[in-house]
Design goal:
The complex is a heterotrimer of chains A (102), B (217) and C (541). With 217 residues, chain B is mainly alpha-helical. Chain B has six helices and no strands. Helix content of chain B is 76%, strand content 0%. The chains are: A mainly alpha (102), B mainly alpha (217), C mainly alpha (541). Chains in contact: A-B, A-C, B-C.
Chain lengths: 102, 217, 541
Amino acid sequence: MGDDGPRVRTYLLVYVLLLGLLGATTGLAFLDLGGAGAAAALLIAAMKALLVLLFFMHLRGSPRLVWLFAGVGFYWLAILVSLSLSDLLTRPWFSSVLGSRP
Amino acid sequence: MNASFPPTEPYATLEEQRDSATLGMWVFLSAEVVFFGALLLSFVSYRISYPRDFDVASRQTKVALGTLNTGVLLTSSLFMALAVRAARKGERRGTIGWILGTMSLGFGFLAIKAAEYVLEIQDQLFPGPHFYLPGADPGHARLFFLCYFILTSVHALHVTIGLGLLGVLAVRAAWGSLCREKGHQVEIAGLYWHFVDLVWIFLFPLLYLLGRHPPHG
Amino acid sequence: MTIPLGARVPENYLTADYRLRSWLFTTDHKRIGILYLISLTFYFFVGGFFALLMRLELVTPAGDLVQPETYNRLFTMHGVIMLFFFLVPSIPAVFGNFFLPLMIGARDVAFPRLNLASWYIFNLGGLLALASIILGGVDTGWTFYTPYSSVYSNSYVLLAAGGIFIMGFSSIITGLNFIVTTHKLRAPGLTWGRLPLFVWSLYATALIQVLATPSITIALGLIGVDRLLKVGIFDPALGGDPVLFQHLFWFYSHPAVYVMILPGMGVESELITTFSRQRPYGYAFIAGSSLAIAVLSFLVWGHHMFVAGQSVFASLIFSLLSFLVAIPSGVKVFSWTATLYKGAVSYATPMLYALGFIGLFTIGGLTGLFLATLAVDVHVTDTYFVIAHFHYIMVGGMVMAYLGAMHYWWPKMTGKRYPEAWGRLSALIVFVGFNLTFFPQFLMGYLGMPRRYHAYPPEFQIYHVLSSAGASILGVGYLLPLVYFLWSLRYGAPAGADPWDATGLEWRTPSPPPTHNFGETPVVTEAPYAYRLREDEGGSP
């Protein structure tokens, strides 16, 4: 680890991008996008997160092992959310057996 | 200032010690992802169950203050990255300065959050016995604000812990005892701080923005 | 470093410093392992005491020993103490702490001070749990299902849940420490493919500890918020979803059972190889199956919720995935059995426990498949069938592995040998007592005896009497080692560095080891478990 990391210019560029994305996400929220609104908001959040991870947290240039542990939490979270939602979203499918949701 | 000191037990080299500390923080952060994720699952699951009521409730959040706060936290992340850079280069004044800058923004975040809480309590949005929100099922809207207060206060707790860590580092840098690990502790604290920012990057749209546009009809 | 004239050179980690503060402020992983051993032995007998009271009550069909509310508290505290304050930490905190650095040729774990902190945090959590017991206990079951636990229970839920909440941090810290230690502190030449299988199992366990524990932290934390602020997060009357709690709870608690058994499987691999003097059959498969279990264990939690109101669709998915998770466990059992084949098998006490483990764990595991089958589970869920299933794995498997590890590594940790004849006798008593206690439970569970009931129809009494008789025998089997291990500290024969003539770096250092583990950092040049090799070469280590 002899180098000093990304240059100041890189940090500033990333920062400007982040602020731009922030403006975009707040602005888009006021538009009528229906279901796509939520998707857009989450997509923009993911992009911001990637910028912070890659540049501010120095993931870019980190060893593979660090990449693994950076990703592993999200992967496990995805499991928790997807399998739990697979229950929640499909309960009405057999509502005659189990009773209906409020 | 960056003379080489021997590593502490049980490490053979300073580099091994630094790499271990970095890996350790990333492992810890992966646990934190699941931690916040479990809270988010609760929120998402209720949101899916009560979309209308959650939309109405979500529109009561102060989106201007929330946006401002997001900007504050993003800026603090920039300052933190610059602090880490200064520490790596052994610049004592720069390190202390950028750390203090990060901390002020962190305190600013907490202050704005506290202001929001005060406003929300005054508007009877705190999910206690005086909760009142017309236009939505009271139980469901209350659940929204329950999730809101829990998520944001747990996040604020993490911000506070981060401020504590940074405070300790600023003091150490001022006393000159930061040289020993070549400022690596600043990098580790930086990872934690950026993570706290990451959580907010997801909390903000989920709590403030979804349902912001009133539905037609 | 020059030693002053007349200074006493410390012989080992035990004699290095006798002051109490040198123990309470130690960062030596070996001492921390011993500290955990003391704490965990205490909690094991506390949890066992509750089991004893339960089995006494169950000898008669009528509820005549304790009140129903008291019985609820007994089984809750038995579960809470045994699971969170014994089984989850057990092998990793004691033997993992002691032996992981030794096995990889390191001087300590990656974060020694965090290691000490984890022991204090563990005991802080334990204190809260003990406080809840002394004040009257909790009656929700160790599963804390809502809304009973969050709204209606009048027992000390906050204290008990708080204790588990705090203990969770201790678990995460241990896991984090072991992950970084295994990645970063291996001796030169010690590639992943040369690691002892015990290390592989500790690593897989650590992954689960780090990634699963936060979920129960949140689940119990939300119960705490609910009870303190009375807000109704899980209260259906206010729109809350009790099944959401169960998702959060079981997302941890299912992988947690693998946290409990994986280290036992790691010990098993060490014992089987040493006492049959063979390389493990399928080293890569055993190592890989540990990782597979760690990953797959996270995908099956809904099999605890088949009758909870979970959708049938999700239940089908979880049922299928539960069948999959049995496969790596099966791989291990086949590998251990194949390792025994044509080996020079000897029957020292650790091996008796190891052999018992194979059979009992297999029974437990197979009955898990019964439970994973959706239709069968509807019939046997919440009966003694489930109880027998998990006790076969946890007690017949895990506790036997723990005892096997105790006997195997006791000479190394203390420098003393325990009396072998008593060891074998106790192992036999444990085996007989265990089966007598828990096999009848399969039968009565299938016939409909519900769990958590203190009074029952008279036709079940014969099973309960057998079970309680077995429990008293099992209790004797557990008390005997307590006695003779303590006896051996004073009167036991001294043990050499390698009393079992085993491979592995931990046997290449004196018994007890010096504080710094190794004089010089070892360099590893040969494959692990090189038993054949050494005999071919004439037997020098």
